[in-house]
Amino acid sequence: MSGRDDMLVIDGSVLLAWAVQTPASSRAAGLLEEGVALLATESALAEAVEGALRLVRDGHMSAADASEMPRFITPLLHALVTDAPLMGRAAELAGAHGLGLPPAAALALAQARGAVLATLDPMLAKIASEVLGEGRVRHISA
């Protein structure tokens, strides 16, 4: 499947790696310098903030830093896309592949826009390769 190489859909795992130091953060940050349009769904942002809140509960991040994440992440994106129009397809993908709705919505957005999907999640990367086609997924590993 061909598509647009000038657009990356970013999932929640990458958004979280932009805001919180992880072994994959430097590779994830490299996406910011590629000169392509970066898109994420609202649910991907919610998933990233939820991940930060887990870090708050575990004592690895302050609540203040977690609450600032949306204000930090959103300007890095070219577009934060509403999920509502994607939910039908996202539900189909979630049901067929055992995904949660936020990653399924990111996959649905990549599919709808013909974009490449960027993720740290190896399971999502594998599924996305099947759905989008070879070369349409950027799996960022630690």
Protein model, in words:
The chain has 142 residues and is α/β, with parallel strands linked by helices. It has a single domain (7-135), classed as Rossmann fold. The protein has seven helices and five strands. It has helices at 12-19, 25-30, 42-57, 63-73, 87-97, 101-113, 122-132; strands at 7-10, 37-41, 79-81, 116-119, 137-139. A five-stranded parallel sheet has the order 3-2-1-4-5. Helix 7 (122-132) links the parallel strand 4 (116-119) and strand 5 (137-139). Helix 1 (12-19) crosses helix 3 and helix 6 (101-113) packs parallel to helix 7 (122-132). The chain is globular, with a radius of gyration of 14 Å. The protein starts with 6 loop residues before the first strand and ends with a strand. The mean pLDDT is 94.
